[in-house]
Design brief:
This protein is of the alpha/beta class. The protein has helices spanning 22-27, 68-74, 110-122, 142-148, 167-176, 190-200, 236-239, 250-257, 261-272, and strands spanning 2-11, 14-20, 33-37, 45-53, 58-64, 81-82, 84-89, 100-106, 126-133, 151-156, 163-164, 183-187, 207-210, 226-229, 232-235, 242-244. Bound molecules: FE2/S2 (inorganic) cluster.
Length: 273
């Protein structure tokens, strides 16, 4: 029984679900994800665990309404039951006391980043979080990040809140100012992660990206989530979802994410009829 304990809209098209899943809440580690189905015939939706509460037996997930399945999920309310929640899946983030860590989350990328940041702080790191959004209305979880991090920088593309520009502008400023950065961890849209990797590579700043490919089974059997890292094929669901960002073929990942766009459009139109 995966009961929805609470649901709230965080921003336009983004919902936060707290779900009763005691075994997952007990075992989940930063970086791991679950795959949920709303109904027996529902599509599998991979979602990173943004937060867990082992005492309450709950996990927190963020969902962006991007297609039929996520729109269907957004129709679920507090008290409703999800068909299944499988997890925790994927490898936990390898976390050490690196020193000065910059964690970068773009939009929904804040889900993995929040959980990872909890681990980063527990390991004794100094943590700067850069959160990027298109505009002020889309910002969420700034309060949670403020509680967690030593410093939070919010960027908006239009300058309606925080620093005007992209997360990479904020990161570049830190680098240009000569700050020592021992590790960068990023999650969000693929172009954002690619830009972060391109920025840190010449400075030899180790960089981890939490990837978000299409997933089906989540157990390494179907190959849907394959990505190329350092010239080798990896399955994000079992080998990742985090990889050395300097070695990820982001262009291939972007192409693969667009593969089913036309079919997704048709499914969405039928759902809305
Ligand atoms: Fe099927 Fe990773 S989702 S192999």
């Amino acid at each position: 029984m995966y009961r929805i304990v609470s649901k709230r809209e965080l921003a336009e098209n983004v919902d936060e679900f707290v779900i009763e899943a005691p075994l997952i809440a007990e075992k989940a580690k930063p970086g791991q994800f679950v795959i949920i189905r709303t109904t027996a015939k529902g599509e599998r939706i991979p979602l990173t665990i943004a937060e867990k509460d082992p005492e309450a037996g709950t996990i927190t997930l963020m969902v962006q309404r991007v297609g039929k399945s996520t729109f269907h999920l957004s129709c679920f309310e507090e008290g409703n039951i999800l068909k299944d929640v499988v997890g925790p899946l994927g490898k936990p983030t390898h976390i050490e006391n690196w020193g000065n860590v910059v964690a970068i989350g773009g939009g929904l990328g804040l889900a993995p980043i929040h959980h990872i940041c909890q681990g980063v702080k527990e390991a004794g790191n100094n943590l700067t979080v850069i959160m990027g959004f298109r505009k002020k209305d889309l910002i969420f979880w700034e309060d949670k990040m403020q509680l967690l991090a030593d410093r939070v920088i919010v960027t908006t593309n239009d300058g309606s809140y925080g620093m005007k520009g992209l997360v990479t502008d904020a990161l570049k400023k830190l680098i240009d100012e000569g700050e020592r950065i021992d590790m960068v961890i990023c999650a969000g849209p693929v172009p954002m992660m690619k830009a972060v990797a391109d920025l840190t590579r010449p400075h030899n700043i180790p960089t981890i990206a939490s990837l978000n490919p299409i997933m089906v089974d989540g157990t390494g059997m179907c190959g849907a989530c394959r990505v190329t890292v350092g010239g080798e094929v990896k399955f994000a669901c079992v080998d990742g979802p985090e990889f050395n960002a300097h070695e990820v073929d982001f262009d291939e990942l972007m192409n693969r994410l667009c593969m089913f766009k036309s079919l997704e459009k048709v499914a969405m139109e039928r759902f809305q009829e």
